[in-house]
Amino acid sequence: MKLKQYSSLFIVLLIITMSACKKDLGNYDYNEINKLETIADLPSEVVATYGKSISVKPVTKFSLDPSFDESKYTYEWSYIGPNGLGGTKLFILDQNRNLEQVMRVVAGSYQAYYAITDKASGVKYKVGFTLKVVNEINEGWMLMCDVNSQARVDMLSLNTTGSFDVINDLLASTGSELKLSGKPVMVYNYNTGLLIGPDKISFGIYLGTDQFTTKVEPNTFKWTPTMNLTYEMFGSTPAGFYADVIQQRGSSSAYMIGKEGAYYYERVQNIYFSSPISYIAAEQKEFKVAPFVGGDKNSSATPHAIFYDRTNRRFVKHTGSNSTCTTLPDPDAAQRKFSFSTGMDLLYMAWVPYNGGEVFSILKDPNSTKRFLARFNSASLVQSYYDEITATNFANAEFYAVSPALGYIVYSVGSKVYEYDMSLKTTKQVVDLGSKKISLIQFYDFKNTTKYKDTNNLMVAFYDPALPEGTNGSINTYVVPPVMGDLVLAKSFSGFGKVKSLTYRER
Length: 507
Description:
β10 (140-147) and β11 (150-158) form a beta hairpin. Mean pLDDT is 92; it is low at 1-23. By secondary structure, the protein is mostly beta strands. The chain has helices at residues 2-24, 170-173; strands spanning 36-40, 45-49, 53-56, 59-62, 73-82, 88-94, 99-102, 108-118, 124-134, 140-147, 150-158, 164-167, 184-190, 204-209, 213-216, 245-249, 253-258, 261-266, 279-280, 285-286, 304-309, 314-319, 326-327, 345-352, 358-364, 371-376, 383-388, 399-402, 409-413, 416-421, 426-432, 437-443, 458-463, 473-479, 488-496, 498-505.
């Protein structure tokens, strides 16, 4: 009963309201609003290059403003992008009439909008378009260089024609917040998986000097202080810590050496760089580590690494997710070629795929100028070679490398490069750069060897002291023939700093 009464009352009120509105018609002045009639010079797809200037200047026509007084309007350029939490949000690019800026949006394709609001009426008009951002700095050689005894990152950036463009001072050219200080030490990149910390980075590009090591955002090279390597390390960190070596192991692990300590990371088991693994549990002693890691970087087997204990002059091994290392037992007398407790100083060590995969190590007798080559399998510990290196002028060698396919010992003295055949004990000079000076020699270990075919090519980085600092560096790559044949120059690059370390950003 009450429901009917309320219903009748509602109908009466509605009739009264409608009557009042009807009587009020015509009591207002209606003015035509300033409408957006056309907008030109705004493509349906705007293509921008990351790190370079973009200029978009729409031409607008309003119904009541034929001469277009831009002070009568507000403007907004926006796009929808990832919010870093798995979702999306609207980002404001600019609030000027024209979009003119250096593009800092990560490479990709985005839904974008240009909005213009009439201040007088408050009416907002919005036009949609696609913003496509491409990154020319996408793939190529990243070079940690010395320029006037200071670290600088240069790059050989792969362009669309398949050749490489020189980018001097990559961080400055991309507007990165990172400013390097100190002398150059290393550059390295690998797929880390999602790292701890607030930056949500899952691919590591690491840049290191003798003052600190940090990663940067891998696509934009943006940087925040929380990208410092110490934020990836649990527990106390030695004062002034920086990495000498970071080396991937398999698809989810990595080793690091810094401040003469070795560290291990494994993302699947959430093992982060923390307490050093350079410790022998059976002896309850720490040891100092030489800056080399031996073992197959790309192996899918149980991760392991060979380190050299500088304190006790011996080889040691880390396996799996163990928190410490173990000493290596010497083989039986019939198979033994040397003692893993060598009593010598390690000058160089690297794992190469030669002979099924072996650790090559160059050792120096601390009581003489003699050098020795020791080879063994890092997994089985089977020893395959041990003898004195009798190569020409080897006592003065500055840089070393080992041919992955042929097993030649390659070394440099001043401006000259030599090859040494351990079987025949013969030496051949293969490069003479005259007045130039060598800063690095290396056989680069690509991860995707199906796509990248130059793993067996020797890289020689050098510089010309007579040319200006910062552009006097060069790299030659050479094909290394068998039977100690003459090297064949494959590629040559120049125009950057003195290369101390390099890594290739694969795609």
